[in-house]
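Usage

Read records sequentially. Each one opens with the input sequence:
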Amino acid sequence: MRCVSENDDGGKESTTTYQILESVQSGGSAASLVMLKPLQGRTHQLRVHCAEILGLHIIGDKKYCNARVAEEEDLQLCLHALHLRLCWTDREVRCVAPIPEHFRAAALRFGFTLKTLTDIESRLMKSANPVSSISLRRPLGPAIV
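and closes with the structure output:
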């Protein structure tokens, strides 16, 4: 995904790769667990790319989605850095953080199983490599990333 707003004077291009980890549909709602990898670090880059390019908001995002939807969901922002890898010229720092409780509760509410969340969390926390593949499938419903 790449984005520069047409109305943004002097805006800088930003690129995000994404991979859909799991999708669920239940009744009239659908959601996807999505792994995002920003190649730059622009303010709100991931939130903007989900909303403007994929056309889907991150669950709980009251800034970049329809306000009515955000109020109905009444959830905190479901955007979490499970795994960060920061590289400098002479060293690399790797940080991992488990899925927070509000994120876990939102995922369960949208129909993901605890086993799915645990399996994804375990697999990603063991991985030292960044996302290298991009899924061309479009996520279902609002994203949990």
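Summary fields computed downstream for this record:
- Residues 130-138 have pLDDT under 50 and may be disordered.
- The longest strand covers residues 14-26.
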